[in-house]
Every structure is written in structure tokens, then in C-alpha cells.
Amino acid sequence: MGLWLLRRVGQILPTLLILSMLIFGLQQLMPGDPALIMAGEERDPAVLAEIRSELMLDRPIWAQYLAWLGKILMGDFGFSWRIRMPVGALILEKLPVTLQLGLMAFVIAVAIGVPAGILSAVYKDRPADWAANGLALAGISTPNFWLGIMMILLFSVKLGWLPPSGYVPFTEDPVQSLATTIMPAFVLGSGIAGVLMRHTRAAMLTALSQDYVRTARAKGLPERLVVAKHALRNALIPVVTLGTIELGRLLAGAVLTEQIFTIPGFGKLIVDAVFNRDYPVVQGVVMATALIFVLLSLLADLLYMAINPRLRSA
């Protein structure tokens, strides 16, 4: 286990290094001159030269990259050119918002998608299967922005049950915080629930057709034990892979949903940074997102071994 973990970390470090090169290199392709934006309307040549020197924009790209990478390794994500505050502080400020919204959406998706996929596979070609497939198709095909607007009209405008937009930190008022995030979480989770349902159904159908399942049934085991203990455990491996990817997407920020519900998360932060040519913020948020995906990939591998003991000796 320890040797395997060291090998995985050894694979992760070169991946992060390559990602950092891509993030920094592709950033240079963005149009506009940050020095001109920061200099304001006057754009005095002396001021522009000073800004470029301060931001190291007058150095070669490789020198800028090495300086940026060195700061990243020390935990310094740079300084926002527009907001004039450390990027690390901005990330820590937005991360709890994104974590709450993403985890709530993921819980909703798993609570709906996985049980629906199991029922659809167990009752294949029956009304339960047709209903589950219909709900999955509706969740996948419904645009998030349309569903969000419809939920605001119904639950906020018509019924007055929930606030239409805004965000209240969980530490300030847990009830109001859940009230402001339940609709955007459902909007995000509904689409992922449909994807999880389809993958769970496919994996369960494959598992239920295996010899070990037929053997378990031949021994006279109750059907619920056959499904839960024998089929589901093996079917969960591809579902775990998909789940970690979808969770990473949620934690990376949902731009449209955050804009509709005015949620100040990662999605809104990076959109504002791109429009304002705030390169350090874009680089910091994308690098933090890449790190989240890599760590979730490692978590998926650990879950594989917990679900299937045979993989521990692989």
C-alpha cells in the first residue's frame, strides 16, 4: 500500500508540472496588455515601464514561468492586479462557497442517480426501468440555465419558499445558507444524476450477467443480497471513476449556474478575472482546479481498493 502510494505520487508530480506549463503558456495567448489596463487612462510610458518591470512582463517567458512556479511551490499564487489582494486569499475566500455548492450538488446527484440506476437494472424492461430512463434523459438534456430560471419562478416568485439569489455563509446562518444553495445545487445535481443513473444501470446489467451472480442465485441467496453484496460492489468501480470526475467539475465552478443565482464561487471569480485580464487570478484558480482533479483521481484509486480487495495486490 505504501509503495503503491509513493508510485502514484511520483506520477502526480510530473503531471502537475506539465499542467503548470500549459496553464502558464496558454495564458500568454490571451489578448490585451495587463500593463495598459493597470496604468489607466494616462498610460504614461514611464509608468508602463515601471509596471512591466514590477510584474516581470519585460522578462522572457521562461523566466516569468520559473519565477511563477517558484512562488507556487512556496504557496504564493501571486497578487491580483485588479482587486489588489493575494490570489491565495481570494481562493480561500471562494473555496468554501464552491465546496458547499459542489458537495450539495454531488450528494443530490448520487442520492438520485445511483438508486435509480440500480432499480433500472434490476427491473429491466419494466415500468421502473422506463421511468428511470425517462428521468435520466430529462436531467441530461435540460439546460441548467433554463432549469434555474424555472425554479426561481416557481419556488421564489410564485411560492415564495426560497430566496431567488444570493449567498449566505454556512457559518453565519446554516438554515439561510442551505436555503440559498439548495436550488443551484439541485440544478447542478440533476444533470449529473442522469449521467450517474445511465452508468450505474450499464455497470449493474453487466455485473448481474456474470457467473458469480448466477452462482449466488443458485445457492438460494435472497435477491437483495445478490444485488447489494455481489453485483453492486463490482459495478461501483466505473461509477466511482465517473463520480470523482463529476465532483471535480463541480468544484471547478459552474459558471452559468453561479451567474444565475449570484453565487460568488470559483466560476464567477474566473469569469471576472478573464474579462479583466487579471492573469494571476486565472492562473491561480486554474492551477488550484487542476490540483483538485489530481487529488480526486488519487481518491478514486483508493476507493477502488476499498471496494474491490483484489486490486490491493495489483
Could you explain how this protein is built, in words?
- With about 325 residues, this protein is mainly alpha-helical.
- Helix content is about 75%, strand content about 0%.
- The N and C termini lie close together (about 10 Å).
- The mean pLDDT is about 80.
- The chain is globular and about 85 Å long.
- The longest helix has about 35 residues, at about 85-120.
- The chain contains 13 helices and no strands.
- α5 crosses α8 and α5 runs antiparallel to α10 (about 225-250).
- The relative contact order is 0.13.
Span between termini: 10 Å
Structural class: mainly alpha
Q: What's the β-strand tally?
A: 0
The biggest beta sheet is recorded as: none
Q: Enumerate how many helices there are, as a single number.
A: 13
User: Low-confidence spans: pLDDT under 50, at least 5 residues?
Assistant: none
Measured by DSSP, the beta-strand proportion falls in: under 5%
Overall 3D geometry? globular
